[in-house]
Amino acid sequence: MSEAEQLSCVMNELAEIKKILADFVSGTASNDTSNVNLPPSGKEYLTVDEAAALIGSKRSYIYKLTHEKRISFTKPGGNRVLIKRSDLLDWVEANRIKSQKDVQNDVEQFMKNSRRPRRKAPKR
């Protein structure tokens, strides 16, 4: 191989490395460590892998939730864990932390609907 061919080969490899780095930095690189995609939206029961992908967690966390019975699940056949999509989403929503604006709206709504009459200022 001539010197020019070697230089061309190195330049091609360098261009490929630059593209891979650019994809990684921009977040468009494919994640080869995870072969699980999000489940189809119409699927009612999810596997542990699909449930983890849906909420962005690891399989071990889903197993921990089922072991501690913090989330409902079913084991048809006694071995395979399936989680109902609505149960998982309800669990996620139940752990929602309200923003200050939401809390302020709740307080205003409570005060507005309060049956207790407001105290009048004492007369002097």
Topology:
Blueprint lengths: L2 H24 L18 E2 L1 H8 L3 H9 L15 E2 H10 L5 H14 L11
Antiparallel strand pairs: 1-2
Description:
By secondary structure, this protein is mainly alpha-helical. It has a domain at 45-94. The chain has 5 helices and 2 strands; from the N terminus they run αβααβαα. Strands 1-2 form a two-stranded antiparallel sheet. Helix 2 (48-55) crosses helix 3 (59-67).
Notable characteristics:
single chain, 124 residues, mainly alpha
Specify Rg, calculated over alpha carbons.
27 Å
**Range of helix content:** 40-55%
Quickly count the helices: 5
Would you tell me the structural class of the helices and strands?
mainly alpha
The count of β-strands is 2
Short description:
This protein has helices at residues 3-26, 48-55, 59-67, 85-94, 100-113, and strands at residues 45-46, 83-84. The chain is mostly helical and 124 residues long.
